[in-house]
Predict the structure of Helix-turn-helix transcriptional regulator.
Amino acid sequence: MRGYSSDEPAGPSTPNALSRGFGVLGDEWTLFLLRFALLGCRRYTEFSTRMPISHAVLSGRLDTLVRSGLMARHEYQQRPPRAEYVLTDSGRATWPILTAIWGWERTWVHEHSYETPPMRHITCGQETTPVLTCRECHRPVAVQDLDTAWGPTGGWRSSVPEVATRRRSSTRGAAVGHTFYPDTMAIFGNRWSWALMGAALLGVRRFSEFEAALGLPPSLLSGRLSTLREHGIIEQVTGESAAERSEYRLTAKGLAFFPVIAMTIGWSERWFGSDEGPALIQTHRACGARFAGELTCDQCGEPLRGTSIDLSALDSTS
Ligand SMILES: [Zn+2]
Ligand SMILES: [Zn+2]
């Protein structure tokens, strides 16, 4: 497992920044709400008219976003009473994650039940695809360019979102049958899938290694692996021996999801980080710096900013 130390920190496993960050964002409606909030929506009706969402689900998600600190609820004493949901700094800081998802979906997912219009970089005027780069040396970064080790709050058990923080399946049900980002949600929408994806990105390949790392029952593990395979994110190695056939590796499409994971890790550590230290310590081998990711424009090479991307094309409900 090149570049990855599997030694987990000793001590009890308590939910860390990754568990909390991926727990909040691993929900399709939440991603949609953030997307519309970044486009300027604030009022309940501005959200409800843009999404085929029930009132119960919408209020539940808005409450969760407020509780998690991504939105603040402002009430206005007027008739009828009015409330606005305003993004906080941590909520606004999700834009690179949504931008990375958008870029991946546009490049790798060709059957959409909705449109994926291009994203324009206002600085250069070109249609842009975000590229993950190192903030220190500005080189493009793929997962194999990093050395990764667990930090003081790391370990798989601590990094998987808790069941208690997940929405019940009945309230998630509204998105079933009308999934906008089925490929993204195959990775993001299940607490084990992102952990599995993380393990695969770090070089775990064998069924038994996934089992040992994540502590997952085999039936659950094969289920999650099948889902990722159906979406073309992971593939089973075709080999002669049984040992080879128990190996899985990420496809090009799976590897290309790394910017989404990297930006989510960075965001989670920034906003849910612990005084005891980070969950993961990643070093960019080429420059030796502690890795912090940044998205740049593939056309002009300049860093993308929340204000330098024309998101207006995203403001469609179809
Ligand atoms: Zn670097
Ligand atoms: Zn550009």
